[in-house]
């Protein structure tokens, strides 16, 4: 996201999609970029930049959509107890990202605590950091990011500003 490297468990990713036509949701909070039809399935598009207190993605033609697996798809994994705490819901959701760089193999022992000097991102959205060469990759708490968006959407619609 911008000059910041973010990461999440690859087992949560269904696919990465490049060519998007997103329909905006009227009166939605800025986190909810809109909806997209992908092969007959409706995808909720979340602007990860906004979740991370950054300006919204300005040119989505240069962005990618990281589409998450549903809760049911995650539950189908055998021997993946460490994914039990992840809650992504049953709807298909995608994070708008600037680019996809690489897939890393990370061992639990390589995950470091979040440094206290990362102040512009809500610490609840990060599970740790991993060194990649001379850079740090911030590990995203997917459940917390989705909760942030749902809470923002709920607050907005609870006060009667918009309707679904």
Structure description:
With about 160 residues, the chain is of the alpha+beta class. It has a domain of about 110 residues: CheA-289, Domain 4 (OB fold (Dihydrolipoamide Acetyltransferase, E2P), Beta Barrel), CATH 2.40.50. Helices cover about 15% and strands about 30% of the residues. The C terminus is likely disordered.
CATH superfamily (homologous) name of the domain at 5-101 and 143-158: CheA-289, Domain 4
Main sheet characteristics: 6 strands, mixed
Task: Report the CATH architecture of the domain at 5-101 and 143-158.
Answer: Beta Barrel
Radius of gyration: 16 Å
Average pLDDT for all residues: 80
Would you count the extended β strands for me? 9
Share of β-strand residues: 25-35%
Sequence of strands across the biggest β-sheet: 2-6-7-5-4-3
Top CATH class of the domain at 5-101 and 143-158: Mainly Beta
Provide the structure class: alpha+beta
Uncertain parts: 156-164
Shape designation: globular
Terminal CA distance: 29 Å
Question: Topology, pairings included?
Answer:
Layout lengths: L4 E3 L5 E5 L4 E2 L8 E7 L2 E7 H4 L12 E5 L2 H5 L17 E5 L28 E7 L2 E6 L1 H17 L6
Parallel strand pairs: 1-9, 5-7
Antiparallel strand pairs: 2-6, 3-4, 4-5, 6-7, 8-9
What attributes does this structure have?
164 residues; alpha+beta; globular; single chain; 6-stranded mixed β-sheet; disordered C terminus; 3-stranded mixed β-sheet; OB fold (Dihydrolipoamide Acetyltransferase, E2P); 3 helices
């Amino acid at each position: 996201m911008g000059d910041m490297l973010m990461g999440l468990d690859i087992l949560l990713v269904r696919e990465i999609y490049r060519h998007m036509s997103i329909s905006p949701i009227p009166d939605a909070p800025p986190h909810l970029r809109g909806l997209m039809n992908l092969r007959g399935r409706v995808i909720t598009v979340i602007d990860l930049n906004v979740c991370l207190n950054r300006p919204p993605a300005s040119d989505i033609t240069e962005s990618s959509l990281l589409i998450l697996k549903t809760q049911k798809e995650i539950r189908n994994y055998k021997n993946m107890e460490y994914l039990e705490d992840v809650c992504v819901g049953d709807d298909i959701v995608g994070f708008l990202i600037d680019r996809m760089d690489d897939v890393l193999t990370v061992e639990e022992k390589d995950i470091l605590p979040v440094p206290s000097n990362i102040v512009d991102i809500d610490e609840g959205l990060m599970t740790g950091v991993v060194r990649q060469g001379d850079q740090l990759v911030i590990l995203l708490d997917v459940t917390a990011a989705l909760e942030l968006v749902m809470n923002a959407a709920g607050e907005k619609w609870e006060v009667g500003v918009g309707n679904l």
